[in-house]
């Protein structure tokens, strides 16, 4: 048996499509999960309920689950062994014997009849996982859905998932293919439902047998006995069985099935005779009954078929004539009835519709049922005709167009649709007429009530009694509003009458004229009442409005008399605040007057409306109203004139007092600021002078802000003087004094700013110099430290600190330069002081000293860090070598293959570790060499450490290589023995397969069956031959390398070769015994091989792979041409097979020959299709080759253009005559090169246009690339012309 390579198959994934049994598999796996998950609850869930009843229930459920699992395990184990018996194999424990995957692969091979990948040799977990993976992958290819199941679950012996896997296999290979039609042939069921239907059909009519499930229906054993008795009544007396004796019934059925039918006894009576038998176990066992009796039934039916052919043919012809006649008559009746039912001329009265509905019910109960029976008889008759013809292998009768059952069914559906619509129309019309009668009665009641109410309210609103006082009129208004509210509320009831009448009219009520007349009467009464109410409301509102106008006139006259007394006062204020208060009071008075103006106009307009002679109704005398309005308007005009005169006097007084107040405020502020600016204080340090500068800047800003308001104040004073105001002299004197004080303030501010700026420059220089000096002292202290660290970590920390310090030193150089500039910018009086003159040179000397010491410390830290790094790495490498030497010295090679593979895995992990260590040792040697070049004080210590580390490393490498060679040798011998064992087992298996073909005949059917049996065997023999050759070469190599074990190696090889010779002899004997079938078998084998070659060649020719480069295109073209040669060489074989096939199938009518003839026709179609596919692919590859060639030339052209563009963009104009001559010569050479390249580019563009015009599949890309190159070439040419012109 060939040993497959050791590799892990990817985890099984969920298939995107579900097979017919996948839903059953999901359901079963879910049930297994539910059973097991009941006991996986957290402890808290169990502790929450401590009642004895609950605990008993839980224990009972767990016991039932365990019992069911045990029954399933026993049943599935027997089922698996019944199939593994064909390959002389069995399992003892289902959970443990399926863990290595070998038995699982054998089981799937037996069930499917296909050859699965060979199991991986070895007993390690990884080998078991790979074998189970192969089985799960095969199930996936068979469209079997496996949810939440992986190879590790089976290898770990998971009970639930192992049982679920076996059940899934049973569903796929035993139950999925079961299909049974119902007794009325209207539905076809499959899988589990089909099996249950089959059991129900077979047990129908047996007393006390009612199969409705796969659990309790089988508990008494009568169902099993009924199935056996149905097919083999000679084996048992069913009448003698009693329902109460379940154990005997079960035992009797199981024993008969095992002894008489050869069915394995998967169940025991005690497994079924329980309260709730296991469904899956019973399904598995019942499926064996189905498959056995289905085969028996097929053989029995075949014998009866021939004798009934002639009778069926004559009977079928008579039945066809009867069918044609009955179908025509039925279709004619259906069409006539549909026309009648589609008539929608219904009566428009309740009694008429009731009569039509009674006639329709008579049709449904009297006329239609016989026709429905006739339709069913027609379907039965056609089915009988077709069944008889099909059973007699005659052409199935198909009625002509228009007489098909589907046509009759469609016509009947149209009849039922018309009937249904007719019934709906009649019943809808009946309901409508009943509703209309009820609606008309309700309309009469509502109309009578509305007419009575409207008459009473018309009498009420016809009276006018409003009164002559405002209070009386307002009371009349409220009473009228109450009447209107009642009328508005009643409008909904009047509208309800209209709605009922409209609904009757919309529904075409037969007495609609009477309804419409009464509706018009109610509407007329309602409109008249609303007109009367509206007219009375207008009269009432006019009276109310007149009384309100008279009241407003009286109020306004009183208010105007009061305002005249206040406006005639002579008080104009004694100061600004007093004038402002008087103005505010006057504004309030004016606001009240303005507000009352609108009210006066409104009252006048309202009153004058009652003087209009055009109105018929006048609630008062118009002359009285006119007199009162004129008096009101005269009083309001006099009041407005008094208010304007008083405002003018108050405004003049406010202007004078405001000017005097603003001048006083400005003088006070100027005097205060003059006092502050006269101070000689400039601060004691930088902070003080900066504070004073900020204050002075704020003062200047405040002066700028006050300059504008001061100017406005002076302009106001000048305006008072120019206008000759009574206080003009006082205003002129105050203006002159204010201007003189402001000019003095500006002079003081300028002097103060100069003094503060000089002091700030001096203090800033001193502060910066002090900061620089303090930093230099701290930095010199740090770089002068002798500390270099005591190990690698501390030295690295010091080095990082020193690098930061060096960066800080470089960053302070600009600050020192800035100090020098500050000193030079000081005034001469300050720059000549001792603290300024010598300060900058001193700081520069300290800075140079700091730079020198920092460089010395950096070099010292680098040397110390390199030394510590080398010593640390050397120590770590030495520790690793010591640890691995101890492991290798104590390692003893085991004898078992599994243990050897574990050791090999450890060696495989050791090799990358050694590579990493070698790199580290090389780094240590590099560091040591660098240190030795600097001649450090500890030179001898460095040399000794380096030599010791290299010596130990060489010793360890020698030890590891020796151990690895010994391990490889032991592994090769163990693998050789294991491969010999598996090869021998493989050869024994193939010998049994060859011997199992002895019972096949020599006809075509037998040869086909033989071919199916031996096709896989021949391929396996080729693989076995190759494997034996490999074992021979391996044995010779091992014997040469291990002389001590050579006899055992050659002895094992001899056993393998002897088994191989026996297998070949068995195969030759079988081939010799075939006789005349040999020629047929050779033809079928050749046909299979040629069809396989044709499929592979079509797949290769149909490839959509496109070349990405020109070499790939040339390679694909060469490969395609070679494929054409191969096709031409196969043409003779094709002709030979067609001729031989015609000879074999000539004058043959059996199904196998017909199938072979179809294969030959498909072969011819495939051969012709291959030629067309080759031509199509040749055209695509030729276009792709042209495209890739164009791309190659385009890339070269783009490179040339890029070079030209670079030269043109970097060409500079010469500055001398000599340089100009050289440039002209160089430009001429470049132009010659461009012309030569231009020819190539134009040729490329022409080739691209030819490809585009030839309809190349990449025409768009070619055109785009050609346009890009042409554009760049034109740009270069234009730039070149411009350059030549320059």
Automatic annotation (TrEMBL):
SUPFAM superfamilies: Calponin-homology domain, CH-domain, Spectrin repeat. It comes from the Eukaryota. InterPro entries: Actinin_actin-bd_CS, CH_dom, CH_dom_sf, Spectrin/alpha-actinin, Spectrin_repeat. Residues 11-21 have a biased composition (Low complexity). GO terms for molecular function: actin binding. The keyword Phosphoprotein applies. It is found in: Cytoplasm, Cell cortex. Residues 1-10 have a biased composition (Basic residues). Residues 728-755, 1007-1034, 1113-1140 form a coiled coil. Its main location: cytoplasm. The keyword Phosphoprotein applies. Residues 70-174, 189-294 form the Calponin-homology (CH) domain. Keywords: Actin-binding, Coiled coil, Phosphoprotein, Repeat. Gene3D superfamilies: 1.20.58.60, Calponin-like domain. It holds the Pfam family Spectrin. Residues 1-22 are annotated as: Disordered. Probably plays an important role in neuronal membrane skeleton. This is Spectrin beta chain, non-erythrocytic 2. The gene is LOC102733959.
